[in-house]
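Technical note accompanying the year-one report. For the benefit of new consortium partners, we illustrate the data format agreed upon in the data management plan: each record pairs a sequence with a structure-token string. No post-processing was applied to the example shown here.
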Amino acid sequence: MIKKISPCSTLRGEITPPGDKSISHRAILLNSIAQGRARLSNLCPGADCGSTLTCLKALGVSIKQASSAPPTIEIDGVGKKGLREAEDVLNAGNSATTMRLLTGLLAAQPFLSIITGDNSLRSRPMGRLISPLHLMGAKIWGRGEDSLAPLAIKGGELHGITYPLPVPSAQLKSAILIAALFAEGETIIQEPSKSRDHTERLLQTMGVPLKVNGVTISLTPPITPLNPVDLHIPGDISSAAYWLVIGAIHPDAKIRVKDTGVNSTRMGVIEVLLKMGAKIKIENQRWARGEPLADLSIESSELAGIEISGELIPQLIDEIPVIAVAACVARGVTIIKEAAELRVKETDRISNLVKELSKLGATMKEMPDGMVIYGGAKLHGAKCSSHSDHRLAMALGVAGLIAEGETLVEDAEAVGFSYPAFWQDVERIKAN
């Protein structure tokens, strides 16, 4: 699918982003092994969370749709011992979160599982996931000397470990914590810097004896079953980021983004935009079962380039593609470094961002662990490609709204992995 985007003179309106993708994955999986029924509303409607649902149904979990607006499901948790061997290969699609979290779960199950994914997912690194699970006693095999999917998992008895994470990765941390629920003894994880903490918050809400002390997390397997948790999932700040950026860089914009998660480990995009000079207001702050949320207002702003690195990177790794768009038109130079993780996402986001934004007139330089962006560009329409990467597709869409002339985005349907209604919401704020 090719999407045509044209600029418009004003942007106005309210947007409610889809449910947080990270929370949705975790709420589905953990409630599946809780004891009892849970109702999850405002679930992320994207294909990635659909992969998690499909895999857990194949493992014997009863999951029913209760409503489509907002997306709501009911899960009858089977408890820690109620999963059954799937009759076929599990398919995680394009979702690394599905594959990594399920691998942690399946490592402790008394049966054989095989999990695969699409071409992109089969090229993403799994060795750093398999290594700690091996140390816990798991038996896992994969291509490339146990570094790539498909993965074959022969579940069994696990034991707790003390493990320093090689990188600040919420997916890796979460997979280990999920395996630790079934292990004998305590598991201790040490992060190099803080990554998103949705798994820790949800486990504590479900009654798991988990402790957090700075960047050290300790989990002792619970004796009692996990308590199911009804949850209205906050809006995804990663999806909200596109509206914050376009609201800041468009010459005449006023946009309100409602019901958005403002977890402290996910606030990097707001911190960066504020440092660049964005006029963002955080209003109506409240809580939803351990997760904070708020309404965000943004209007046209004068942005300036900054350096983005260090502990900020794990807090905004998914938002860097659209932050790069903001940097293209900001005054001065923006430097993004210590972000080599971008090269092993759905695509090589460093290389592809530089390639595609340059087609629109941006001046950028690719670095091994990031990029240098020379601001002040006057973007112009061009034909570009998302490389089937949902984050890149939406970032290019944002760029097209301020570029002179018509912008064509190939593989625009990739937005369906996380934000299926993105293009409709673009047209809605243009029409107001």
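Partners are asked to follow this layout when depositing records. The chain is about 30% helix and 25% strand.
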